[in-house]
Amino acid sequence: MKKARMILDRDYSIGQIDRRLYGSFIEHLGRAVYGGIYEPGHPSADPNGFRRDVMELVRKLDVPVVRYPGGNFVSGFNWEDSVGPRDRRPRRLDLAWSTTETNEVGLHEFVQWAKEVSTEVMYAVNLGSRGPDDARNVVEYSNHKSGSAWSDLRVKNGAKEPFGIKLWCLGNEMDGHWQICHKTAYEYGRAANEAAKMMKWVDPSIELVACGSSAYGMPTFGDWEIGMLDECYDNVDYVSIHRYYGNPTGDTPGFLARSMDMDAFIKTVVSICDAVGGKKHSKKKLHLSFDEWNVWYHSNAQDREIVKRDKWGKALPLLEDVYNFEDALLVGSMLITMLRNADRVKIACMAQLVNVIAPIMTRNGGGAWAQTIYWPLMHASRYGRGTALRPVVDSPTYDCSDYSGVPLLDATAVLQEDGSLTLFAVNRDMEDDILLTCDLRAFGKLRPEEHILLHHDDVKAVNTETDPDNVQPMKGMNGRMDGGTFTVTVPALSWNVIRLVRE
Ligand code: AHR
Question: What value does the mean pLDDT take over residues 150-154?
Answer without folding.
Answer: 98
